[in-house]
Amino acid sequence: MRQLQEGPSLDSTLKSVSNDIGNSISILYDRLEQLVQKYYDNNGTVKGAGKLVGGMKGQWFQTFYVNRLQNELYDLKRHAPKQTRDLSDFLRSMMKKEASFKHLEKELPELLLDIGRSLEYQDLTKNSQKWIKRREQFIDRMSELSVDDDGQYEPTKNKPEKSDIPGKQASQVEELVNSVLKKLPKRDATEIRQAVARSDNKLQTLAAEMNKRGLKS
Fold first, then answer.
1. Residues 131, 89 share a domain
2. What is the pLDDT of residue 5?
3. Is 172 exposed, middle or buried (0-12, 13-18, 19+ CB in 10 A)?
4. Domain that holds residue 198
5. Does the global pTM surpass 0.90?
């Protein structure tokens, strides 16, 4: 009797997830920045570029998440249920809500970072950190432009000379947040990290979430 073929192992699943959020994410953000800059150069404004940005993100979402990453995350949940409880909540939320890159971008990098650390899988940890860094760099780039109520980008009247200070500040804040969360219980740390990721003022949100739970660091 022919034996049934076993599914992917935990190690191969971690490798697949890590690869899917590796170079493709860096390439995506590179192209997004180039897209917005080219649109601005051609039109003297970036108002209306939001649809193009959303389209490019949607293409990545369909190619890498829907067709590949989603199934790999379910495999990861099956192999490591204790380390992926919050990932299970995330996957359920993706089924309830209108799945989009926006929801994915806000929550998944931090979840995978925690899983990579819990399972001591360095490639997943490293690529999750890169995703968070590129996301923040793109936000910093967009901070040079004003954002209208529709989420589209408009140029500021007096564009400041380009500086790497915002990027450095974001990196320092990220390091500080991570250093604090490492000292907290895992469940609290994950919930707080998700709240911080959705906030514009990360340090203020970190302090508020810790106070709400009666936590000190």
1. yes
2. 45
3. exposed
4. 163-217
5. no
